[in-house]
Amino acid sequence: MPFESARIKVEESLLTIPRYRTLIPGMKAGLTNPERGLQRRGVGQFRFIILLMAAYLFANSLHVFLNARSAKGAETLVSSDSGQYLAFAQRFLQGNFSMDYIRDVPHRQPLYPFLLAAAAKIGNGNLFFLGEVNVVAMTLAIGSVYFGNLRFFRSHFVAAIPALGVAGNPFLWRIAGARLLTEPLYVLILIWVIIAFLQYLQERKAFWLLLGTLFAGLDYLTRPNGIFDAAAFLGVLFLAELWLPLRSGEQVKPFLTRVFGLMPNYLGAVLVLVVVTIPAWVPRLAYFGNPLHHGYLTNFLWVDTYHLAHDFGERAASYTWHDYVATHNVLDAIRRVIHGIWNVCILIPIADERAPILFFLSAAGVWTSLKNGPNEYRFLALFFFIQIFPFIWTNLANPTRRVPYGSTFPFEPFFAACFLAGAWWTARASSFRRLSRGLRGSVPSRQISG
């Protein structure tokens, strides 16, 4: 009897652990607020991530230094799109913040050139300092993934594996150290948006909604498709609040009352987005009469080849949805979506990661979260699909790998962590059950029966 009561108490205590309760099949889906404290052991408990970030910063900084010192490496750093960003940065350094460059290339955003201008000012134009913008962004991305997942799952192991996957990603290593492109900065900011998204669903505090919207605005200031990230962020969160069960202590209210009760927070978030993105939409409104004018980019939505979308100038779009509807049918649209999903969501990540361990872990995380929860990750999957759908749709006309991969990769570490957390707690539960059965079998029957 003493053993039986102890065993039952231990099993009951396991069910009070949020990750055990929410990540084991059959348990109620949904994350709970983090416990008020991991065991405090000072900075020592963060030795791993500190060393990982320091090692990455040193190694990729050396990579940038060697590239900047060689003629071929320096030429690659400033080639193609990188040269445009440097030209825009030079205008900022000269005090020209009118964004008049968008008259010729209206799809370019100002945040990355602004950071390059700051780095050029600090380093007196040295290419090494310019390259460090990307290296610092990726170093912060590694730390953000670690601490974001640590906050959700309270497991250093679960947080460490995805962080290692980010640090070892060959595509982002190459982009960060050899080119001046927006991907590292965009990945970092989208990671912050994802963290705010999950934190808001956990805690329902307006702080996370407003902070996530601010990050989404910075996301848009980095790349034009950030507007889809912002729309997906706010739209999915609003839907989640109406769909998810009421939190403990909340009173049941009529549907319309709940909708209107949410409006002040979301209107405030939209206001934050409008204010943060002023450097992007005000110049477009002034020069083109359209705050969302991005030149030829919308061509990719309505044509089937890169040539038709790109080769007739970057200033204005040449095609609209009317052109697509006039020349395509429903089967064409379905084939286009299937083609895009296969390439954007499967082939491109596998090709760019080479050893796609993180990709397969994240795919398992998407499957298990849709099947068993937690609910927060089900809505994260919806967020992912909405923001990536424009790339899925346009992949036929624009088969580039670099840009869509920048929008799929930031989600991988979080879905991978979700899978690892579920597998970890399932394994611990199975070990405990085997141990309890073994101990039960080793106790004399008369002692058990009392």
Number of domains: 1
Largest sheet entry: none
What share of residues are in beta strands?
under 5%
| Oligomeric grouping of the chains | single chain
Low-confidence stretches: 1-39, 445-450
The Cα radius of gyration reads 25 Å
How would you describe the shape?
A: globular
Number of helices: 23
The end-to-end distance, rounded to whole angstroms, is 5 Å
Number of strands: 0
| Coarse structural class | mainly alpha
Order of helices and strands: HHHHHHHHHHHHHHHHHHHHHHH
Helix content: over 70%
What is the averaged pLDDT score?
A: 85
Provide structural commentary.
This protein has 450 residues and is an all-alpha fold. The chain has one domain (47-223, 225-293, 329-449). The protein has 23 helices and no strands. Helix 18 crosses helix 20 (375-394). The longest helix has 31 residues, at 412-442. The protein is globular and about 75 Å long. It starts with a helix and ends with a helix. Residues 1-39 and 445-450 have low confidence and may be disordered.
List the helices and strands and how they pair.
Elements: H1 2-15, H2 18-23, H3 47-69, H4 71-77, H5 81-93, H6 111-123, H7 127-153, H8 156-167, H9 170-178, H10 183-203, H11 206-222, H12 226-243, H13 255-276, H14 278-288, H15 299-302, H16 306-310, H17 321-327, H18 330-353, H19 357-372, H20 375-394, H21 402-408, H22 412-442, H23 445-449
Helix pairs in contact: 3-4, 3-7, 3-8, 3-9, 5-6, 6-7, 7-8, 7-9, 7-10, 7-22, 8-22, 10-11, 10-12, 10-21, 11-12, 11-13, 12-13, 12-20, 18-20, 19-20, 19-22
